[in-house]
C-alpha cells in the first residue's frame, strides 16, 4: 500500500496571456485558470501506481479559494482526497516560502492520514516556471529527490525502492532509490486520462479539506508569504521588438542570390569561428 | 541604490560558478557562466571561483582556470562519479559555508536546477531561475540583477535578493559568452575531502543511455530551420545537408512539427525551444510572433521565403525572396565550393 501526495498548482494558461501593446502590461482577463499540466501527469502516474500497488492519493494545493476548482478536477480523475491550503498570509510566496508551506502540509498529511511514501510535483509551472518547488519540498522533508522523471519502472514494495528513468539533455538516466521519494513529472511520463462519469459526479459534491495558518500551530510565520520570500521582483518590462535593418539580397536567379548571401556570411567572423575557412575532413 | 536597508554582508565576497560535466566532459554552459561571472567579479573587484565535483576531474579544475577562474574548489572521489543530489549538494554546501561567495551561478539544465534547488533550500537563500541577463550593482549594494523571461517569453523580470546571501541564479545555456581558453592563465586549485560513504547514499545510478540522435537545439550555434513552406518531411534532408556543411542542426516551425514532418525536439518558438545561435536560417517560415519569440535574439538571421511580404523579413538581417527549393541547394553548393570541396 502506498500513500501518494500529488502537489498541484492552479495557474493562468500563460500561453494565452497577451501584452497590451499600448500600456505594455499583461492582459489577464479571459485567460483561463487551469491545473498546471505537468501536475496532471503527476496525478496520472499516482493513479497508475495505486492501481499497481494499492493505496491512496492525497492532492494538495496552496492557493486562493478559487483553486478549489482545480482540486475538484483531481477528484474527478480519481484522487481520494484533496486539501486546499489557503490564507492571506501565504500570498506573495516565492519558491522558498512555497516549498516551506507545502512541506509543512505534507508533514501534516502524514500525521493525520498515514505516512507518505511518494510525493509528485510537476517539472515546473506555466507561470512561475522555476522548477524549484519540488527540490525545495524534498530537501525540507529529507526525501530522496528524482527530478525530470519520464518513466516509473517500478517499486519493490518489500525493499521499499523505486526505479525511474530521468530525462536529461543528453540522454536518459536509469536510477534507483529508497522511499520516501519526491518525483517531478514530465509530460512523457504518461497520457492523462479523461475523467469518468462517476468521478465527475463525485467531484461535483466534493468539498476539499481546507487548512489555513490556524491549522498549523507550529508554523514559523517568518518563513511564509512575502516575508518568507528572499526573491523580490524588482521590475518587469516588455522586451522591445528588435528592429533589424534588413538587407534584401537581390539577383536574377537563385544562384546569384546564393553566392551573394555566402559572400556576406564570409565577411563575418563566422568562417573562422566555425572552421568554414578550412577544408572539411573527407 | 543605497545599501542601508540591507544587512552587513561583508563576510560574503566573490563569484562562484558550478562546473557541470558528464564523465569529465564539461557542458559548454559552464564556460559561458565563467565568462559572464568574470564580468561580475571584475565589477565587484573580487575573485572568480569555480566548483568542480566528480571522479577523476582534476583536468576540469585546470580547464576552469583556463576559462577565467582564479580559484577552483575540487572534490574528486569515486562516490561522485555520477551526479546525485545528496552527495553533490553536501559537497557544494561545504564550499559555500567555508568560502562564503556573494554570488553562485549554475546552468539552467536538469542537473543545475536539481542541485541549485536543493542548495538554496538548505542554506536558505533566494534562487532566481532560468536567467538570460546577469549584472551587478557596484559596491556598496553589490546586488545581483538577475533577469529572466516570464509569461512564455512575453515579458522580462529582474529579480533581487536583498536579505540573504549568497545570491543564487541558474542561467540558460547559449546566452553568455565564454572567454577564449587560455592555458597560460594562472589560478589556484583547492582540493576538498569528500566525507560521505557510498552506504550513506540511497540513490544508485544504474545506467545512462546517451541519446546519439538527440539534438541539443538550445545550445546549437548554427540552426537551419524549416517551416510549412517545405511541404513535407523529405525536404528537411536538404536543410540537413546545409546544416551539416556549416556545422549546425536543423530546426523547425510548429506548423512543420504539427504536420508530423519532424520531431518536437526541433521546434523553435513559444511552445518549442528558445534559441540564440550565431546564425539562424528561417526557410519557408512566415514569421509568426510565436516563432519569433524563440529565435529573435539570434546573431544573424537569414530568411528565405517566396512571399516578399512575409513578416519574417522584418526580423531578418538578410532576406532572399524566392523559391526555397532552388535557393537552399544553391547556398549549400556555394558553401562547398568555398571550402574547396
Ligand atoms: C514572473 C515571475 C517570476 C518568478 N521568478 C521566481 C524566481 O526566479 N525564483 C523564485 O523563487 N520565485 C519566483 N517567482 C515566484 C514563484 O514562481 C511562485 O510564486 C512560487 O509560489 C511557485 O513557484 P513556481 O510557480 O515556479 O513553481 P515550480 O517550482 O515551477 O513548480 C513545480 C511544481 O511544484 C508544485 N507547486 C508549485 N507551487 C505550488 C502550489 N502553490 N501548490 C501546490 N503545488 C505547487 C507543482 O506540482 C509544480 O508543478 C516568480 C514569479 C513570477 C510571476
Ligand atoms: C499558443 C501558440 C503557441 C505557438 N507556438 C509556436 C512555436 O513554438 N513555434 C512556432 O513556430 N509556431 C508556434 N505557433 C504557431 C504560429 O502561430 C504559426 O502558425 C506557425 O509558426 C506557422 O509556421 P510556418 O511559418 O512554418 O507556416 P506558415 O505560416 O504557413 O508559413 C509558411 C511560409 O512558407 C512560405 N513558402 C511556401 N512555399 C515556399 C517555397 N517554395 N519557397 C519559399 N517559401 C515558401 C510561405 O510564403 C509562408 O510564408 C504557436 C501558436 C499558438 C497559438
How is the topology of this model organized?
The complex is a heterodimer of chains A (282) and B (341).
Chain A: E1 2-7, E2 10-12, E3 18-20, E4 25-27, E5 33-35, H1 37-53, E6 55-62, H2 68-77, E7 81-85, H3 95-113, E8 118-122, H4 133-141, E9 144-156, E10 161-168, E11 171-178, E12 181-185, H5 197-205, E13 209-211, E14 231-237, E15 247-248, H6 254-266, H7 270-274
Parallel strand pairs in A: 1-6, 1-8, 6-7, 7-13, 8-12, 9-12
Antiparallel strand pairs in A: 2-5, 3-4, 9-10, 10-11
Helix pairs in contact in A: 2-5, 3-4
Chain B: E1 15-19, E2 21-22, E3 25-26, H1 28-44, E4 48-54, H2 58-66, E5 71-76, H3 85-99, E6 103-107, H4 110-122, E7 127-131, E8 133-136, E9 144-150, E10 155-161, E11 167-171, E12 188-192, E13 204-210, E14 222-226, H5 236-246, E15 249-252, H6 254-258, E16 279-283, H7 289-295, E17 300-305, H8 312-315, E18 318-321, H9 324-338
Parallel strand pairs in B: 1-4, 1-6, 4-5, 5-12, 6-11, 7-11, 14-15, 14-16, 16-17, 17-18
Antiparallel strand pairs in B: 2-3, 8-9, 9-10
Helix pairs in contact in B: 3-4, 5-9
Low-confidence stretches of chain B: none
Which two chains share the most extensive interface? A-B, 82 and 87 residues
Mean pLDDT of chain B: 94
Number of helices of chain A: 7
Largest beta sheet of chain A, briefly?
9 strands, mixed
Task: Please write the CATH class name of the largest domain in chain A.
Answer: Alpha Beta
Helix content of chain A: 25-40%
Strand content of chain B: 25-35%
Mean pLDDT of chain A: 94
Task: Give an account of the 3D structure.
The complex is a heterodimer of chains A (282) and B (341). In chain A, 29% of the residues lie in helices and 29% in strands. By secondary structure, chain A is an alpha/beta fold. In chain A, the strands form three sheets. In chain A, strands 11-10-9-12-8-1-6-7-13 form a nine-stranded mixed β-sheet, sandwiched between helices. In chain A, helix 2 (68-77) packs antiparallel against helix 5 (197-205) and helix 3 (95-113) packs across helix 4 (133-141). Chain B has 341 residues and is an alpha/beta fold. Chain B has two domains: 15-200, HUPs (Rossmann fold, 3-Layer(aba) Sandwich), CATH 3.40.50.620; 217-336, 3-Layer(aba) Sandwich (Rossmann fold). Chain B contains nine helices and 18 strands. In chain B, the strands form four sheets. A seven-stranded parallel β-sheet of chain B has the order 7-11-6-1-4-5-12, sandwiched between helices. Chain B has a five-stranded parallel β-sheet with strand order 15-14-16-17-18. In chain B, strands 8-9-10 form a three-stranded antiparallel β-sheet. At the A-B interface, helix 3, helix 4, strand 9, strand 10 and strand 11 of A face helix 4, strand 7, strand 10, strand 13 and strand 17 of B. Residues 227-229, 253-256, 267-272, 284-286, 288, 290-291, 294, 305-307, 310, 323-325 of chain B line the site of one flavin-adenine dinucleotide. Chain A: This is Electron transfer flavoprotein small subunit.
